[in-house]
Amino acid sequence: MRKHIYTLILSCFLGGIQAQTYTLTVNNGYGSGTYAVGDTVHIWAKEFPANAVYDKWTGDIANLAMPAEWHTTLVMPASNVIVTANFKTFTPFTIAFDSIQGQVIKKPVYSYFPANYYGVIYFFHGTGGHASNWINSLEYRQMINQAVADSFAFIVTEADEATTGIDANGDGKLRWSTYPLDSVTNVDMANIKIITDTFINRGYMNRNTKRFSIGMSNGGAYSASCSYLFGFNAGISYCAQGLVPVFAASTVPFQFCMAKYDANDNVGPVGNANALSNANQLTSRNICSRYYLHDKSPVYPERFMRIAGVTLAKSQGVLNDLVSNGMVDANNNLILLPDTIVSRYLATPSLFPGFNALNLLQRSEIPSQIKATYADHQFYSDYNTLSLAFLKDPCDSSLHLPNAIQKVEQESKLSVFPNPVFSLLNIDISTADFTAEIYNSIGVLLLSVKDANSIDVSSFSSGIYIVRIQEAEKTSTVRFFKQ
Description:
Immunoglobulin-like; Rossmann fold; 4 domains
């Protein structure tokens, strides 16, 4: 009997500890509330003033996962927490627009060169995009503003196919040509060289100016190819793995910012794993590289106030639409693919009064905000500070998130042998139910087989290939070299 009483008392005591809560106060931001010890909580800096960017969190920041970023998380400690978001102002600047003759046609070019700048960043748009995306779209423009506030100059142009509207290589897309890796036969590479020479001749930069690249999606893959070809100081890709041969040869420090739930056909879980493999390829040769995996976050009531002219009431109205249409869970995490949400809105606009209360320009920004919170295929500003810090010091060992890297490594483990292989490639895998696909180095599917532990690759040309294994809901990839 005494034992049972002791157990009951102990259970009540432990239960009391587990239920203990503390207060989180977020000044100049969002996420304040009462939370249990051990809860993971998202916090956000409030929307930035027109002439300011996020600077840093101050206060009880010891538990913040990324105190350098405007959006971060913390694990609630057994104490009250007070944090404050701080902003830094910058002098309003005017972006110059030029029409510069490229190899074939004139190219639209946006640029800004402040006095005593650190280096020049080339920004590259994604498939179907234009140079103006970087200037006018919210998530992109936050990066532009932060780069200027951090003393960078920048140049933005666009793919030749984007300018002409002609799919020159017949791949069904209007985008950058990531190969061949030369500035003669590749018109996009030729244009970058010509535009650079133009600004050098105008006296805005010289041959020794530090140069960097940041690109989204196809622009991210182009960032890798371009930074390698021209020997930039560092490069960054958002939501793109890049070409395997580039990272097998490049000596340019490179960072990958991937999206955990990327639904793009050319990326997805395989692309995320391949990006990590490319990052590891660089680090194995002592070239500094970083890999970030952007995760989901709740849609907080003020999220859409980041869009110019959207009031708190209108932002709350958009969230109410998501809630009333069953598109978020109890914690306001999106449970539907962003493209599905857009499709449902287009099919029945009357069910979305909050969306309809916005003007056309404001509505056009909603999908990017939804995709950013879902961690889908979208440029996101959540790692702006870390990205710019990487450009200035790629080998700073504090600029990484080991938990994200470890998770992708766990998901991408797979053994093939021999490697290099001449004829018969063997697959070492624990399950008997799987599909194996082999892709070449630029992502073209060459072969797909079911439940085959040995694959004849004797007819393949010499080079690097990728094996993708699909087993139930798990996807793994590994590279091999065909002799």
